[in-house]
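User: Second chain of the day. Same drill as before.
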Amino acid sequence: MSAPSSPPNPTLFFETINAYQRTAALKAAVDLGLFSAFSGAPASADELAARCQCPVRGIRILCDSLTLFGFLTKEDSKYTPTSDTAFFLDKNSPAYLGNAVKFLTAPGIKDVFEGLTSTIKNGKVHDSEKGTTAPDHPVWMDFARTMGPMMFGPAQGAAALVELDTTRDTKVLDISASHGTFGITLAQKSPRAHLVALDWEAVLTVTEENAKAAGLGDRFSKIIGDAFTVDLGSDYDVVLVPNFLHHFNIADCTRFLKKVKAALRPGGKVVIVEFVPNDDRISPPSSATFSLVMLGTTPEGDAYTFAEYQKMLGDAGFKDAALHPLAPTAQSAVIGVA
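Assistant: Same format as last time:
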């Protein structure tokens, strides 16, 4: 028997079992405003501690840890944010993602993984019957208020794939609209586009605020309720379905897509935005790992492959299904024609 190419190494075990510490460190840095305290220049632990109004010991250990994790660099006892850190985690940046921490670490998302063993063993979310798919689940208010900036890149990419006829009135339906970023970005392409947003009533207050702030107040309306049961209306040019289908099983997704097709005008398009792994379900990692999120938070959701979306769309009566990666983001658009 040949000797192994390298000796056994437990590093992966320890990094994974202790990964919660990384989450806690990053959340603490965001909560303290650490990344915004640099003011565009390297800073020492003493300087950062004074700016964050914290004892030096904690700030030094936190900064050293964040350096090890790749968020900061260190030279001559001074720390500097990496370019990505400065772009996404400095509150002064228009691309600031720090607010998303509230949703990503919310109890309704994070705590369910404490019972993952039970979820896997029993085939259902351990702490509730429907997980985050329950009507008016409070986590979706956090999502609506904090995740819009994170969706800006995918929304721009998806909007670039769809043309709206600017010579006539057009209608866009945004399913599970939440922050409204996808629908707003597309509707802004045409002054004659009317945006209809569908979500729970409380969530739609955020959608409406954002639509008005974007200048769409006079061409915005809403549909309140469950997307599976409420009347969607008709004659839409585009129906956007961003980050929605992954919550449900394939049969329910197909049933819903049939409803979407009935709401579209002939030749209209459905634009699905999702994390779409390859057929091997382990690549690319940024998309493939999303299935674990669905396992922990939904009764039957999954990260579906393009082949699965293609079959759903075909069974729902759509044609010409096409996959469009929305680089550099981890998401893809799947577009079908009614």
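The beta strands are 43-44, 72-75, 78-81, 170-174, 193-199, 220-224, 236-242, 264-274, 319-325, 332-337.

User: Great, on to the next one.
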